[in-house]
TrEMBL record:
It holds the Pfam family Peptidase_M48. PANTHER family: METALLOENDOPEPTIDASE OMA1 (PTHR22726), METALLOENDOPEPTIDASE OMA1, MITOCHONDRIAL (PTHR22726:SF1). Coiled coil: none annotated. GO terms for biological process: proteolysis involved in protein catabolic process. Binds 1 zinc ion per subunit. Residues 1-28 form the signal peptide. This is M48 family metalloprotease. Keywords: Hydrolase, Metal-binding, Metalloprotease, Protease, Signal, Zinc.
Amino acid sequence: MSFKKRKQQIAAVLSACAVLFAGSFAYAPMPVANAGLFSTGDVVGALLGGAVYSAQINKQIKYYNNTEEGRQELLQQIKDQYGVNGDYALNARLDGIMSNLTSAIASVDPTIYDKPYLYFINNEKSFNAFCTLGHDMSVNTGLFDVLTNDDEIAVVLGHEMGHGQKDHPAIGAKRSIGPAVLAAATGGSILGNLAANAWNNQGITKPQEKEADALAFEYITHSNYNPGATAAIWQRVIDKSNGSKTPEIFYWAYGGSDHPSDTSRRDTAAEKLEAYSGKHVSIDKDEGVVKVNKQEFVKPAAAGDMSAKERAYFVMGNLAAAYHNGHNKEAATVEGQTVKLGAQPIMTCVDGDESPEVLAERLNKIK
């Protein structure tokens, strides 16, 4: 292989791996800090000295990932890169969701307390959240503009925390960047700057994405959030994208070939909901009809900014929780405009829905 061709290949690898550490939902490449640092001379030098830096690079990854000093340093770098939104209401909302998820995760994985998550809201208006080395997380302001309920926000954050619990960012960092290539750009000194550019998850594989989705489902089912949100959020993405494969607001949902499709993620979550219910609850995804014991229960109407199909997954989630927790042994009742199965609220009726009395009577017949 010619020396010129070798230089071209290494430069290409550097370009492809410019951002590696995040377990984010990001799609489009965001601005990369210090983009001009990668020179041909640096790359050539790396060919001679890259192996020497191998232990050094692993040491830096461990520093950012496993030490409190490194975690705080990396968090500050990310804050400097993307800015901090100090909005009191948004931060209080995020604090509450993170607290609830931490308790839920601890019930199945107590190691979360060994390295508590550090997080903040950044100023970016696109729809994204990410987890990088050291359990450092950031949530875009734009995420709160797209998602209007805490259940779906919890799914996004639970997914990111799933990446963190399985150490996917560190695994991806070690796999995606060869020590010689990294040393070419950094001289062993700029790893933290790369880590701060935590938008694209080029170091995260499709199996890891699926694992994080599965963990998010597990975490949500150990919380008070509606498990139907694990499917509803993907229906929302489908609805909001209006058929476009890469709408600009959904950096989070379209991660290229390393991410499952939004449709497959919705359908996988729906399958998990059906299993969670003991096979009692299902959905006709094309019609948006929720079924109980294979009989039609309800086709919810659209409500507010939520489509009929998105709302159907929330009804499915409530029913799945009712069956999983044994509330189906009790009668369906009506409380105001809300249909309940035992102590579990199932659906609050709005204009366009059948009456709660009709739905309760039907549910009692088919449950």
